[in-house]
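Budget justification aside, the reviewers requested a transparent look at the raw inputs and outputs of the sequence design task funded under Objective 1. We therefore reproduce one unedited record. The lines immediately below are the structure tokens for a 251-residue chain.
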């Protein structure tokens, strides 16, 4: 069989399940660290429940993803996950989910591994959202998930550091309301509301317009020029304010 015929015949199996996200829909890509719960505590030995060194590695990874060829307008990270909002008209790889998932998972894995000096891997999934309201709801969902996870983590690790076993600490936290968890921490001199915002709400990365000093060789003058620079925001707003904040990134 001629190569061209063989290539045409086999190519159809490779692309049989290709899906392209329809135009007019928003694309959000969520990436999760593979096995990071065990790696961060047992192998890499980051401080529990939060370590600023790990946060900075995640921030580095988000910034890399926002400059690796996709039109990303907003990146959000909490714990070991990253959510990327692509511009609505982004047409990278013809919006093929197979390519979007594989490339971004690979880029995240490489960026984190190189920065950390140890091998790490991310998986990825695509979320297709048809309108602005669902985009806002998505990021508010992850924002609230961050708060819930942070509260549970601080309670759990406070008990573990007090000598409780894994099972006893887990059982103690699982049966408490949100208010009771706050009270538990307060009884041990931890005011959850005063903890760093990035621990409770995650952080965002987005482009901002900034003035930079440049030189015009034609006029031999120093001039002010506008540049788009990446800003990492560790003080995200709360509640409805965060919804407005996300909406501004869309429009």
């Amino acid at each position: 069989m001629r190569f061209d015929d063989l290539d045409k015949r086999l190519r159809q199996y490779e692309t049989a399940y290709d899906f392209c996200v329809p135009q007019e829909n928003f694309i959000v890509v969520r990436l999760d660290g593979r096995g990071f719960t065990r790696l961060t505590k047992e192998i890499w030995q980051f401080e529990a429940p939060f370590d600023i060194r790990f946060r900075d590695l995640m921030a580095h990874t988000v910034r890399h993803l926002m400059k690796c060829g996709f039109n990303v307008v907003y990146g959000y990270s909490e714990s070991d996950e990253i959510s990327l909002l692509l511009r609505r008209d982004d047409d990278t790889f013809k919006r093929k989910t197979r390519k979007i998932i594989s490339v971004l998972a690979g880029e995240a894995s490489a960026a984190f591994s190189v920065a950390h000096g140890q091998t790490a891997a991310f998986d990825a999934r695509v979320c297709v959202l048809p309108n602005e309201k669902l985009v806002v709801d998505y990021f508010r969902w992850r924002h609230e998930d961050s708060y819930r996870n942070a509260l549970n983590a601080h309670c759990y690790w406070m008990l573990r550091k007090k000598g409780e076993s894994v099972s006893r600490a887990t059982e103690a936290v699982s049966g408490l309301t949100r208010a009771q968890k706050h009270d538990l921490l307060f009884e041990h001199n931890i005011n959850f509301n005063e903890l760093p915002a990035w621990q409770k709400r995650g952080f965002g990365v987005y482009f901002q317009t900034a003035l930079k000093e440049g030189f015009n060789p034609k006029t031999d003058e120093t001039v002010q020029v506008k540049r788009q620079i990446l800003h990492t925001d560790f003080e995200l707003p709360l509640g409805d304010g965060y919804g407005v904040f996300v909406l501004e990134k869309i429009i």
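Residues 64 and 207 are 13 Å apart (CA to CA). The mean pLDDT is 94. Computational costs for records of this kind are itemized in the attached budget.
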